[in-house]
Amino acid sequence: MESSSLAGKSSHQTLHGFPPETPVKPHQQQPGHTGPPARDPGKAPSSFDERTGSFLAGPDHYMSYHEYLERLNQSDAESKDGDASGYEEHLNIVEFPVDELITMLACLLTKIIEANDKLHPNHFDNTIAVRQKLKEHKKMKKLEKEQRSYRRSNSTSFTHGGINTTVSHISEDENSDDSFNDEEDELKNKYLANVLAFHGTNVPGITLHAYLTRVLKYCPVTNEVFLSLLVYFDRIAKRANIFQDKKSNLGDETPTDAEQIFVMDSYNIHRLIILGITVSSKFFSDIFYKNLRYAKVGGLPLEELNYLELQFLLLLDFKLMISVEDLQNYGDLLLKFWKREQLAGEIVNRDTPTSE
């Protein structure tokens, strides 16, 4: 079951809750009254059930995020059987300081791009090579298809009224597998084009923490918008893995094929961040800004940001909805990462000898 996502920063944000456990008594109708029963003031609106011919009372309560978090903590406490040492700490998405969340997020993304810069130093060039190979493969498949159709066609010639006529019979499904593979290659080629659109020619000189702080200063957004970046980046990577698994039809495997399709590195992370915030703020927040403002804050021309916004949506397959459970899970994982980093830093500082 998918819950509605968070919106806004107040603790009064609402989630669709469960209907009341006790059934609401139907309103009594006045004698001779044939219309729908009158609704008491302050009650939730009712819906008409055509099967029973009666009105069903809707839920009169919506679960706030505070209530959701309390239930989550209670459920964890019960599952741990009173073992306080194993109690899992949850990130309070509504009340957690946004500047601290930015620090945690910047630390995580920085570690990711530093690792990817070392593991995939030539990702852009390799991706271009994969696209070129796809184009050449498409041309070869088209040529082979035409030759195969010509060889396998059965021609019959006859003369009628002095007119020579040739009829060719070609099997309808002889190239069905090739058509499917061609479609897969075309989808992958388009996806690669979406990925390459975010690659910059130079690495921006601003750190991720400073970049996120700049976004918060000039385009204030709430915690769920920043957390949605992790969800969206993960979705894009998982979708890229699907194409990665389906490219065995290219023939011989080469080292280029081993390259990942989607890699966050120093050349694209800033564009991915500002576009993720642009899309997420429009989806989650009641108040957002014009693209011109996002472009100025992100350091991009307006035309480029407009173009990249569409590319970002295509990478996500326009799937922007995030359940509160997913958002909470990513927030908890980020909090765990941050605590491990703090613990590792304390250990390093304790083990480092001080100069006297």
UniProtKB/TrEMBL annotation:
Protein name: Cyclin-domain-containing protein
Composition bias, Polar residues: 1-14, 152-169
Residue stretches of biased makeup (Low complexity): 26-37
Entries under PANTHER family matching the protein: PHO85 CYCLIN-6-RELATED, PTHR15615
InterPro entries to which the protein is assigned, alphabetical: Cyclin_PHO80-like (IPR013922)
Superkingdom, natural source: Eukaryota
GO cellular component: cyclin-dependent protein kinase holoenzyme complex; nucleus
Coiled coil feature spans: none
Organism of provenance: Metschnikowia bicuspidata var. bicuspidata NRRL YB-4993
One term of GO molecular function: protein kinase binding
Pfam family, one: Cyclin
Annotated segments matching region Disordered: 1-56, 135-182
Compositional bias annotation for Acidic residues: 173-182
